[in-house]
Amino acid sequence: MSSVFLLRRASKSLESSRTALADDGRWQIAGCSERATDCLPALRASGAQFLACDLRLADGHVRRLLQQLRRLPEAPKVLLLSSCAHDTMLFDTLADGAHGYMVECERGSSLPQALSQLQDGQALMSPELARQTLQSMGLSRISLERAQALSAAQDLTPAAGLDCEPDQVFNELTRADQHLLSLIALGRLPAEIAQLWRLASEDVGRRLSAIYGKLHRWQAARSLDLALA
User: Fold this and answer.
1) Which of 43, 105, 107, 163 is most buried as measured by Cβ atoms within 10 A of its Cβ?
2) 3 state DSSP class of 173
């Protein structure tokens, strides 16, 4: 049974999450907290494999906690819980190290399901997040006609930037990643992309998860370069 630590900004949300996980039966709750400043020792001691936490917490933003988690030898995977898909802090927090997110108000959203997808190496991405990823990395958006071609799924050449910006040196994305981000940015759903590319829907989710991983390394390298400048 996999373990999860819950970090929620309000007792009502915390109790709701506990109930959902208990009813699901596949998750062990390793610990709970309502404050980021108090949870790190308990989180470290719990050995939880996953952390489900609010994007915005009562005592600040989760980005500071992510910086502390990076120092742990085995940090938990982080699932962000947001009340809004268009929260202005969502992209920056994902870039800083969160592995996925769930919008609680969306129809059909489920914490156990979101955690299970994360456990399986899958992730979701909204059109807005895809556009922000392309823009932040200085990458051009590929046309729908080119991006939906079957050959686009297997193009492992380096992603094409808008120009030769220095940030490109940190960019691990391939053209296939760029095609996928372009399709998501244009509003295509993972299931639709899977059909176009003749992939399983789960494989599209795993590709999106891998893009988040590359985004983490890009952000870390970029931050280090700025610090050394």
Assistant:
1) 43
2) coil
**Which runs of consecutive H residues, i.e. helices, occur in 70-157?**
90-95, 111-119, 127-136, 144-147
Tokens at residue 209, please? 């998860």
65-96 burial, b for 16+ CB within 10 Å, e for fewer?
Answer: bbeebeeeeebbbbbbbbeebebeebbebbbb
Least confident of 65-74, 97-106, 113-122: 65-74
| Residue in the structure block whose two tokens are 């309502």 | 34
| 3-state SS class at 121 | coil
Beta bridge partners of 27: 2
pTM: 0.92
Question: Please, what sign has the CA dihedral across residues 99, 125, 111, 199?
Answer: negative
Tokens of 73: 């030898």
Please work out, in degrees rounded to the nearest 5, the angle formed at the alpha carbon of residue 44 by the alpha carbons of 42 and 47. 105
- 8, 17 contact by CB (below 8 A): yes
Tens of pLDDT, residues 40-81: 899 999 999 999 999 999 887 788 899 889 888 889 999 999
**Token pair 């939880």 in the structure block, residue:** 48
Cβ neighbors of 227 (< 8 A, separation 6 or more) are none
R_g (Cα) of the chain, nearest Å? 18
Cβ atoms within 10 Å of 2's Cβ, excluding its own: 14
CA 205-211-217 angle, 5° bins: 145
| 3 φ, ψ (degrees, to nearest 5) | -115, 145
